[in-house]
Amino acid sequence: MAGKGALARRIPTSLALAIGVFIGLIVSRFFPWTSSTATHTWRSNHIAAKPHQHSRHPIQLPTPDQRLRVLELLTSLSQRYTRECMRNTQPFYAQQILERYSSLAGHRWRSSAQNSWWSTFFGDDERAQAVLSTPSEHKYFFAINLYNSFDVIPDMFAALFRVAAILGYHNVYVSIYENGSTDQTKALLRIFDALTRSVGMRITIRTSTRTRGAFNHRIEYLAEVRNAAFVPLHELRDSENEYFDTIVFMNDVLPCVDDILELIWQSRRNNAGITCAADYMYHDEIGSPVFYDNWVARDINGTALENAPFERVFHHSESSQRWQRHLPVQVQSCWNGIAVLDPEPFYTPPHLRFRMAKIMEGECSASECSLICNDYWEAGYGRIMMVPRVKLAYDGRVYDIIHPPRRNLTAIRGYVRLGGLPDDPRTDPQDRSWFGPHDRLFIEEESVPLDFKPGPKEVWCWGWDGAGDLDGPDVDPIWEPMSNRSIVSNAVRIRHDRSLGL
Ligand SMILES: *[C@@H]1O[C@H](CO)[C@@H](O)[C@H](O)[C@H]1NC(C)=O
Ligand SMILES: *[C@@H]1O[C@H](CO)[C@@H](O)[C@H](O)[C@H]1NC(C)=O
Ligand SMILES: *[C@@H]1O[C@H](CO)[C@@H](O)[C@H](O)[C@H]1NC(C)=O
Ligand SMILES: *[C@@H]1O[C@H](CO)[C@@H](O)[C@H](O)[C@H]1NC(C)=O
Fold first, then answer.
1. Whole-number Å distance between alpha carbons of 247 and 300
2. pLDDT grade, residue 146 (50/70/90)?
3. Are residue 472 and residue 428 in the same domain, yes or no?
4. What pLDDT shows up at residue 22?
5. How much is the pLDDT for 434?
6. Which residues line ligand 3 (CB under 6 A)?
7. Residue 71 near residue 21 (C-beta atoms within 8 A)
8. Any ligand 1 atom below 6 A from CB of 56
């Protein structure tokens, strides 16, 4: 072991980790784990284990398959599910996103570095080097909650590294709060912790010691977990006087690079308080993915969205029409896997926090995410919107359905546009299906800022007190009256200009 330590001092961290994993892999071949070692945690030997990282749950040892995947990952740093999302994009789309997102770049790109800027998106060269001359001052705080997320972490970090390469590594802070996973989440996070630091990104990974049992109310616990991911945000303000301009809050989803960039772009373009994606889950009876997070999502009339095929998700007819055309939609509330937040209401009075309902004051027991939306409205940050173009999955199965590869119709069946014109990428019939190829071309209306309206007087609330064992809302739904402050135009005024300077 001493020899291995000496070796580790002379070689780069990621290589050292790779060697460590490889040795572990070989050792496991010759010395199969016995039950007596089964409670040991799996640690790389030069990252000090913090006492608070001990979990009450015994951590299972990695399976040979998991070890192999970690090794593959370290040697290639490639993702598993989202690998194809930016490969072979149609040339016109590639052009569009380079133009659209260049205003987000935290680096000035030398003209000879154009290829690197390109490859940051398309992954041809993972070591794309940026040339810093006038670094952007816009600072991003990524808050991520994970629980048993072994399967999605490599994809998530692959997207994160690329997004940060575009926004500027120096502009990105990543805060991960992991609430006591029992799979290999912690081990994977430690590897990515090292890799993240090696590119100069700042990262904090914390693990909870409190379990849900310590809380009376399940929403109180979930709110606590989300607040915990924000702790570095407040610490940096207190200790360094450092303020962030945009927060990106992520659940355990599988995003593409352009998904995250589009949410950030729309959030800044619209000076939005909260900007969400649309998330999908497989519906066995319908036999297709359907819109998922309807416990939180409410249209601008306050009506719940439906777990339904795309044409029946919104009841509000104007919203429904925009949704069906993949255009951004104003909503009363949403979360949906990734939410981009304006940090201002966290920094300034009323100093928002995620919270459970004030049940004693008669507030309906909604999700902590619905309540934060209500609180944004009340604080005058009611510019809340959803971006249907950005479709998110939580697993590989749904991911594959909602990101079908684009087929070359000319090659397949000699498809020629009506009237005999050659193939026009704007009229490709594949883009008419809801789960069409990821590289659907942008239309002009997707760049037009929304005209935000005051909030609804009442919002449909389906409470969850968690008194019984019901794994879902357990209180009769009601139309809950909203505060007077959220139903006036002052609630959607721009208070904090985070715009792109287009
Ligand atoms: C962590 O949070 C998830 C929900 O996000 C929950 O299902 C799980 O039980 C929590 N873990 C612990 C150890 O309480
Ligand atoms: C709009 O909201 C009201 C309650 O404020 C409700 O009665 C009505 O059904 C909603 N309309 C639609 C189309 O959802
Ligand atoms: C599609 O196939 C045709 C015929 O094989 C070819 O000429 C064309 O370049 C292809 N288009 C793309 C985008 O690959
Ligand atoms: C809200 O407005 C209604 C009618 O405009 C009024 O009756 C009510 O007292 C107001 N509530 C608060 C808390 O100001």
1. 23
2. very high
3. no
4. 43
5. 92
6. 408, 410-411
7. yes
8. no
